[in-house]
Amino acid sequence: MAVGQAVLINVHVPDEGALPNTKLRLPFDTIASNPSLPRNKSALILLYCRSGHMSAIANKSLKQLGYTQIYELKGGFEAWKAAGYALAPGR
């Protein structure tokens, strides 16, 4: 994530926090119609939400669009915080 090779996307609704280096905030339920998605269907995409439920739905939507390299943060940003990592500043 730090080197910028992946597109880190927060799909949680409502916005309750973000991981450092998040590039996009796209609601899980509208992600498939969002023009901000990478045009390259093989782009490395990392999805997260608060707990993992919304990112799973977004993952399915992106796969249906033909994206091939989609990964989810297991347990969402709650698991991130529980592991001792901080959210982005201002959270």
In words, what does this structure look like?
With about 90 residues, this protein is an alpha/beta fold. The protein is about 20% helix and about 15% strand. The chain has helices at about 55-65, 75-80, and strands at about 5-10, 25, 45-50, 70. A four-stranded parallel sheet has the order 2-1-3-4, covered by helices on one side. The two termini are about 20 Å apart.
- Separation of the first and last Cα atoms: 19 Å
Number of strands: 4
Poorly predicted tracts of residues: none
Structural class: alpha/beta
Order of helices and strands: EEEHEH
Query: Which strands sit side by side, in order, in the main sheet?
Result: 2-1-3-4
The main β sheet shows up as: 4 strands, parallel
Strand content: 15-25%
Oligomer category: single chain
Q: What Rg, in angstroms, do the CA atoms define?
A: 12 Å
> What's the mean pLDDT score?
92
Please, how many helices? Answer: 2
What portion of residues is helical?
Answer: 10-25%
**What spatial form do the alpha-carbon principal axes imply?**
globular
